[in-house]
Specification:
The protein is an alpha/beta fold and about 500 residues long. The protein has 16 helices and 22 strands. About 40% of the residues lie in helices and about 20% in strands. The longest helix has 22 residues. The structure holds 1,4-dihydronicotinamide adenine dinucleotide and magnesium ion. The site of 1,4-dihydronicotinamide adenine dinucleotide has 27 residues, from helix 9, helix 10 and helix 13.
């Protein structure tokens, strides 16, 4: 790789990485049925609605399968199955027996990791490297971790009695379909609750594959029910009187609708909503590492990440250097076929989401910000977006305030710690943040003052099942993961 150093900025020649031979993962690992019914009471059942809808591959726009659309009567059937399983089996089962089932699911997810990874990528558009190396192992880890807690709740909450809530209604988004199913199902089961889970309408297939595993694992019928559908199905779950807890991950708008719908009921809720995280680079940071962290922070999973580092703040003295390094690095990112093992940025999850992102690209330019995109070419078919950065951004610009949920970064400069803290916290959200500096004292100063549920220091997007995750303000409430993730599924008396 030829390097030339000019005016203190590094220019790397990356053309070579674009010319890698294709390395496509085989589709043969994935067994996808033509049609999927609803998984209720341990069986796949035809929907009472008699309706089905398509799920497509956003990288090719081809139809993958059709899945059932659950109506309110189907939701009711699933909730009845979950209630029955709760009363008759799951609540009464010895916790160590419950743990065995969860361990079994964890092991089966691992054993079929390749199939899960391929289906996740086909259905949602994320690079196979990410499904294979992140989503699927992280999902299995989540089941393993919470299986371990199932018979140890008295140690998690000493001197208290940990009682399950009953039936949990769980509604998940399309950005990490299998992983979000694991985040929701594992702690619910470990604490003795039963589940009705609804995956997002664009990415139902890995949850339905998980249903097959749950069936093979011989989990008592009705303990986990997986139903498909769009917003109306989710709303019917939220409104169902026999659901004790709603666990939701998705947009802040829907989070607010749910909050209103459950007001005055006994339903508990955890809401994991949007974000607009500040990623802050100080002039004493290891800049190459910081640039890698910024790239990971905003371009991981096409930027469809609630904790994406979508607002970059760079200390003024290194601003130009960082922006140049970032542009250089963006040129090296491979955008295209998600099934290719070399791909860094895959397809945008849906046509609608691509429209949202493109709307923000024009808003940003109209607001007077300067847009820069990598020069890569995009596939003719499918939904794609070039990695994009905006400079000359004002704090009040919509692109700096609103969640875009795509590979789009705004960059601003700052001079002092106080200034950047104020700018970073000037957002309706508060899910995550990142700090890049050589000084431990600065890290501690920032982490105490940044209003975000998770603050990463000299790294970004690090996840671990033992670590709690969740937000402040419009990013929602409640924590998932770790010991903290058990409490929202329990009555502690
Ligand atoms: P969404 O919030 O509409 O969808 C998330 C889930 O909620 C899906 O399963 C959906 O079927 C369900 N849902 C929709 N309306 C509902 C209702 N009234 N009651 C109950 N459930 C309902 O998210 P959408 O429209 O797909 O994405 C829009 C924006 O939301 C994105 O551009 C992004 O900014 C944000 N988002 C944030 C996520 C996060 O992880 N925090 C995940 C997905 C989207
Ligand atoms: Mg799909």
């Amino acid at each position: 790789m030829a390097k030339t150093v000019k005016n203190n900025t590094l220019k790397l020649k990356f053309e070579s990485s674009r010319n890698l031979a294709p390395a496509p993962e085989s589709k043969s690992a994935a067994k996808i049925s033509e049609r999927y019914d609803l998984f209720i009471d341990g069986k796949f059942e035809k929907p009472l609605s008699k309706k089905y809808f398509d799920t497509i591959n956003p990288a090719t726009e081809e139809r993958l399968a059709e899945v059932a659309e659950a109506n309110a009567a189907d939701v009711n059937k699933a909730v009845e199955a979950a209630r029955n399983a709760y009363d008759k089996t799951w609540k009464k089962m010895a916790p160590k027996e419950r743990a065995k089932y969860i361990y079994r699911v964890a092991r089966m997810v691992q054993e079929r990791a390749r199939e899960f990874a391929v289906i996740e990528t086909l259905d949602g558009g994320k690079p196979i490297r990410e499904s294979r190396d992140f989503d699927v192992p992280a999902a299995a880890n989540h089941f393993f971790y919470y299986a371990g807690w199932a018979d140890k709740l008295e140690y998690a909450f000493p001197n208290r009695q940990a009682q399950p809530l009953g039936v949990a209604g769980q509604i998940i988004p399309w950005n990490f379909p299998l992983l979000m199913a694991a985040w929701k199902i594992a702690p619910a089961l470990a604490t003795g609750n039963t589940v009705v889970l609804k995956p997002a309408e664009t990415t139902p297939l890995t949850a339905l594959k998980l249903a097959e595993i749950i069936q093979e694992a011989d989990l008592p019928p009705g303990v986990v029910n997986i139903i498909t559908g769009a917003g109306a199905t989710g709303a019917a779950m939220v409104d169902h009187p026999d659901i004790n807890k709603i666990a939701f991950t998705g947009s802040t708008d829907v989070g607010k609708i749910i909050q209103r719908a459950i007001a005055g009921t006994n339903k508990k809720a955890t809401l994991e909503l949007g974000g607009k995280a500040a990623n802050i680079i100080f002039d004493d940071a290891a800049l190459d590492q910081a640039v890698e962290g910024v790239v990971n922070g905003i371009f991981f999973n096409q930027g469809h990440v609630c904790c994406a580092g979508s607002r970059l703040y760079v200390q003024e003295s290194v601003f130009k250097t960082v922006v140049q390094k970032l542009k250089d690095r963006m040129e090296s990112l491979i955008v295209g076929d998600p099934m290719d093992k070399n791909t860094d940025i895959g397809a945008i999850n849906s046509k609608q989401q691509l429209e949202v992102i493109n709307t923000y690209l024009s808003i940003g330019q109209k607001e007077g910000a300067e847009m820069y995109q990598s020069s890569c070419s995009l596939p003719k078919k499918g939904f794609y977006c070039r990695p994009t950065i905006f400079t000359n951004v004002a704090q009040s610009n919509r692109i700096a305030q609103e969640e875009i949920f795509g590979p789009v970064l705004t960059i601003q400069s700052f001079r002092t710690d106080d200034e950047v803290i104020e700018k970073a916290n000037n957002t309706p959200y508060g899910l995550s943040a990142g700090v890049w500096t050589d000084k431990g004292s600065k890290i501690f100063n920032m982490t105490t003052k940044l209003k975000a549920g998770v603050v990463w220091a000299n790294t970004y997007n690090k996840f671990d099942p033992t670590s709690p995750f969740g937000g402040y303000k419009e990013s929602g409430y409640g924590r998932e993961g770790g010991l903290h993730g058990l409490a929202p599924y329990l009555n502690l008396v």
